């Protein structure tokens, strides 16, 4: 069976629309989505609708639960809290109902899907040690499963009982269990704004990571239009510790300072900082 695997769409329709044709060419038998359909991005309703059209094996992520009010935002960074507040206030009743119906864990024979970990949608399974711990739990709780698909970290990951593997093409030996994370479709945390996903072919015994560029400038423009931070869907590594905190402080200070009446400089500053662009 061949699966197309997505995670962390984060309401980024531009990235999702770039990734779906790439995966459709793989002719998957089933789609998997490891949560976080909303949060950060400007198109929650459109992305939830687009994902559910795939009839996927799909779980709720922590951002989905926070937008529904089922989970608190105390562990979120300010950028996430801002976008989640907007999402909760603007998403449609249909989107809310669709997210509320998603399980925290999904099981389809050989494959189990969760967001953060088997027990906690907010837990980060980032490295080999944490992944091997998840494999131990998978063996005890889902003895027939071969693969655990996770999201949440926004970073590709492949770990088998033999250890961590390169995230390009990963062989899956018969009888071997694996933890796989496709990386994020909609919020790259790399230097370049890439959409990432995974093709899992159980018949061929292979997991293949894929990525594509997308129109990140159009996504940033859509964020500005909604009064959201244009960096919300692409957070590259900070150039130095505390860089993003200083940026947020400066942005808030400029927002609080009223522009001089009739000032062209003030208007230009507001367009740059408050982003009230049409």
Q: Can you walk me through this structure?
A:
This protein is an alpha/beta fold and 278 residues long. It has one domain: 4-Layer Sandwich (Purple Acid Phosphatase, chain A, domain 2), CATH 3.60.21. It is 35% helix and 18% strand. It is built from nine helices and twelve strands. It has helices at residues 13-24, 44-52, 62-68, 78-90, 93-100, 128-141, 216-225, 243-256, 264-273; strands at residues 2-6, 30-33, 57-58, 106-108, 111-113, 147-149, 156-160, 163-164, 169-171, 178-182, 194-201, 206-213. The strands form two sheets. The protein has a six-stranded mixed beta sheet. Helix 1 links the parallel strand 1 and strand 2. Helix 3 packs across helix 4 (78-90). It starts with a strand and ends in a 5-residue tail after the last helix. Residues 263-278 have low confidence and may be disordered.
Fold blueprint:
Elements: E1 2-6, H1 13-24, E2 30-33, H2 44-52, E3 57-58, H3 62-68, H4 78-90, H5 93-100, E4 106-108, E5 111-113, H6 128-141, E6 147-149, E7 156-160, E8 163-164, E9 169-171, E10 178-182, E11 194-201, E12 206-213, H7 216-225, H8 243-256, H9 264-273
Parallel strand pairs: 1-2, 2-3, 5-6, 6-10
Antiparallel strand pairs: 1-11, 4-5, 7-8, 7-10, 9-12, 11-12
